[in-house]
Amino acid sequence: MKKILIVDDMDVIREMAAFMLEDQYQTFCASSAKEAIEIYRKEKPDLVLSDFRMPEMNGYELQRTLQEEYRKIIPFMFMTADPTEETESKGFDNGAMDFIRKPLNPDVLLRRVSNIMQNVEQIQDLKKDAEIDKLTGLLNKASSEKDLRQLCQTATGALLMIDLDSFKLVNDIHGHAMGDKVLVNFADILRTAVRSSDLIGRMGGDEFIAFCQGIHEESYIAQKAKFINERVTEMAKKLMGENMNIPLGASIGAVFVPMHGKDFAELYKKADKALYIVKQNGKHGYSVYSEGEKESETVEVANLAQIEMILSERNPEDGAFILPFENFRTIYRFLKRTRGFYSKSTCLVVFTLKKNKESETITSSQANEKLLETLQKTFRQGDILTKNGNNQILALLTNTNAQRDIDSAIGRVIKKWEACDTGAYFWFDHEWTVINR
What local confidence, expressed as pLDDT, does residue 394 receive? Predict the structure, then answer.
C-alpha cells in the first residue's frame, strides 16, 4: 500500500485528510514540519500532502529541506485556503506536483492523489529504464559513476573493480547467446556476494563495479574473491557442461574509502592499478591498492589445473600463430637472448605489401588481412606472425635450415597469392635474416 504523509498544524484538517485517504493509502500525520521530517526519515512515504502556511517552516521550506537531504525530487501536494492564484503559481515554480484548496473535497482529493501516484510511477519507470543495464539488471555505467561520485565523498567502504576473466572465449566458442547467459548469471553471483544495500553496476562488456559500505578489511575482499570464483566455476559448468575448459573467473582490484581518497575518478584509477596486478599474476584473485612500492599480495584462487587452462591456447588453429605486435616483440627478444641453445635457425621475415593496380573493391587494409590469412595457412604451427601497420607483416620462422626452408616457404606463399583474387591487384616483396647466429 502506498504511503502518504499528511502535514498540517490544524488537527481537524489532518484528521479529515487521513479519513478521506485511509481506505486506499497508509497515512501518517505530522503537526509541524519538524515532526514531518522525522516521520519522513523513518517511513519514506510516496507522497507528502502538506499545508502551505505553517509556523516556523512553511510547506516550500519543508519540501526544499527534504529534497536537499535526500538529493532527489520528492512528490509534494500542497493544501491551501488562499484563494489567489499567486500562491498556486509559486508552488508549481518550486516543484509542487499539485494543489488542493481547503475545505477538502473527498472526491477531488482522491482523484488528484491518484493522478500524482500514476505520474510518479511513470517517472520512476522511465528513470529506471535510463539507469539500469538491460541485460543484467544492474546499474549501467552512467548511473554507477553518478552514484559512486556521491558515495565516495560521503560514505566509507571498499570500491571494487571486477573483471570476468576469459569471457571473450565464451563468445568465440559458444556464441553471443551463451555469452549473455554467462553475464546474467555472473551478475546474480555478484548480487549474492554483497549485501542488498551495496551498490553494484556494469561498466560495460565483462567489467563490473561495486561499493561495499562500511568495509575496510582486506580479509573481506579475499573472502568475496574466493566465493565469487567458486560460484563462477559452478555456473560455467552448469551452463556449458562439465567438460567446459574455458578458465572463467573473476579478478578484483580494490581500494578503501576514505583511506585511499574520496574522489571517485582517482579511486577508480587506483582500483584499476590493483586490478592490473591481479591480471599480471594469473587472474582469478584480488589485489588491494598500495601507495608504497610493494603492492599488497595477490591472493591466488586458481589451482594448478586452472592455471594451465589460463595459460593454454584455446582451440588452436592449424598454421602459424598470430600475435599482437607487443607479444611478437617479446618472443623475438626471448629467441635472440637464447639463440645459443638451438641447433637450427630462427629467421625473421618482413613482408611488405605493394599495389599492382587500382581496385574498386579491395582496399590496402583488406589486402593486408588477406596476406596475413595466406601466411597463417601456409606456415607451420611453430611459426609466428604479426601485423606491422596496414601494409606489412612480420614472421618468425622457427627451426629452419635458413635459405632452403625460406625459399620453399616463400614459394608456397607466392603460389597461393597468385591464385587468389587479391593477387591481381597487390603484390609483396620480402626480406629475411637469421636472428640466432
Answer: 95
User: Rounded to two decimals, what is the model's pTM?
Assistant: 0.48
Q: Does an H or E element contain 79, and which? A: strand 76-80
Half-sphere exposure of 371 (CA within 13 A, CB side): 34
> Is residue 60 a contact partner of residue 91, using CB atoms and an 8 Å limit?
yes
Q: What is the pLDDT of residues 110-162, one digit of tens each?
A: 999 998 888 877 666 555 556 888 899 899 998 899 999 999 999 999 999 99
The reported pLDDT for the residue numbered 161 is: 96
Q: 434: which 3 cell numbers? A: 637469421
- Pairing mode, strands 76-80 and 157-165: unpaired
List all residues 6 or more positions away from 17 whose beta carbon is below 8 Å from its beta carbon: 6, 8, 27, 49, 79, 104, 109
d(CA 167, CA 246): 8
The answer to whether 212 and 144 are in contact (CB under 8 A) is no
Q: Which helix (H) or strand (E) holds 398?
A: strand 392-400
| Rounded (to 5) percent helix, strand, coil in the chain | 50, 20, 30
What is the per-residue pLDDT for 298?
44
| CA separation, residue 226 to residues 19, 60, 253, 330 (Å) | 55, 51, 14, 32
3-state SS, residue 43: helix
Beta bridge partners of 27: 4
Three-state DSSP class for 425?
A: coil
Pairwise CA distance, residues 267 & 150, whole Å: 13
Cross-strand bridge partners of residue 433: 348
Query: From CA 184, how far away is CA 372, in angstroms rounded?
Result: 36
List the one residue out of 279, 269, 277 whose CA is nearest residue 293: 277
**What is the spatial distance between Cα 374 and Cα 377, in angstroms, rounded to a whole number?**
5
Neighbouring CB atoms inside 10 A of 130's CB total 10
Q: Are 383 and 324 in contact (CB under 8 A)?
A: no
Q: How many beta carbons lie within 10 A of that of residue 357, not counting itself?
A: 8
Give the H/E segment covering residue 222: helix 218-240
Instruction: At 161, list the grid cell.
Output: 573493480
- 220-223 contact pairs (CB < 8 A, 24+): 220/158, 221/158, 221/160, 221/252, 221/254, 221/286, 221/288, 222/286, 222/299
Pairing mode, if any, of strands 76-80 and 47-51?
Answer: parallel
